[in-house]
Specification:
Elements lengths: L6 E8 L3 E2 L6 E2 L4 E2 L4 E4 L2 E2 L17 E5 L1 H10 L15 E3 L12 E4 L2 E8 L5 H6 L4 H8 L4 E7 L1 E3 L4 E6 L7 H9 L5 H4 L9 H13 L6 H5 L5
Parallel strand pairs: 7-8
Antiparallel strand pairs: 1-4, 1-8, 1-13, 2-3, 5-6, 5-12, 7-11, 9-10, 9-13, 10-11
Length: 233
């Protein structure tokens, strides 16, 4: 595939962890844009928090990027929600136009300010999106459409600000867009001929284990708790 375009970062966002919608839950999904220069460290943008560190954050989910390009499509699907008027609806740390899962590959390295980011995985949406949007199957819609967003690990900490360029520096796996890999996972593929090539990629441990388990057991995993939330059948 062709080299991904250079894009302008329209917003850098962070959020604070707060009590969320269901008993005992906590979330920092409500991200707000930052003004001026911000520090990007190994665990993400300075001041950003995660409500559940067991499944969010960490070095492989340090920074979340969501394409603002998708917002118009969501407005078509859901109507003119106030939440979709500005970046941050999906809990993203980076908002851009002109770069989606169809153009980004696993392992891509991007320069942002003087930081260097590496695409580590696509997002697997969870039930907190359902409650955020007031749409019972929002996480399932995000997964089905492939408009998931993606995560970076931070290879070189640095500083950046909204308006900076996000520029592709290296693409070691040009045949593996996040769209392709996401479809392999979300469509619950069991064909070893399709699954095995993915094992040559630098997958995060959870995705590698998922693929290996499918190949060994010939069965798909149960995602209902993640995608529908506590109490799901």
């Amino acid at each position: 595939m062709s080299v991904a375009p250079t894009v302008i970062v329209e917003a850098l966002l962070t959020g604070k962890a707060r009590a969320y919608t269901r008993p005992g839950s906590c979330s920092a999904i409500d991200k707000r844009p930052l003004a001026g220069k911000v520090r990007i460290g190994e665990l993400g943008i300075e001041g950003d928090e995660q409500g559940d560190p067991r499944v969010h954050g960490g070095v492989d989910k340090a920074v979340h990027h969501y394409a603002f390009d998708h917002y118009a499509l969501w407005r078509d699907d859901l109507g003119a929600l106030a939440l979709l008027e500005s970046p941050g609806a999906f809990g993203e740390n980076i908002s851009t136009r002109g770069l989606t899962e169809a153009e980004v590959c696993l392992g891509d390295r991007f320069a942002l300010g003087d930081a260097l980011l590496e695409v580590s995985q696509g997002r697997q949406p969870c039930w907190k999106l359902n409650d955020r949007f007031g749409v019972a199957d929002m996480a399932r819609r995000v997964q089905a459409t492939g408009r998931t967003g993606w995560y970076y690990r931070v290879l070189r900490p640095g500083t950046a600000r909204a308006g900076d360029v996000l520029a592709l520096a290296e693409r070691p796996h040009p045949g593996w867009t996040l769209q392709r890999l996401g479809e392999l996972l979300s469509r619950r593929v069991l064909d070893p001929a399709q699954l095995e090539p993915a094992l040559a990629l630098p997958l995060v441990p959870s995705h590698r284990k998922l693929i290996e388990r499918r190949m060994e057991q010939g069965a798909v995993e149960d995602w209902s708790r993640r995608i529908d939330g506590p109490g799901a059948d």
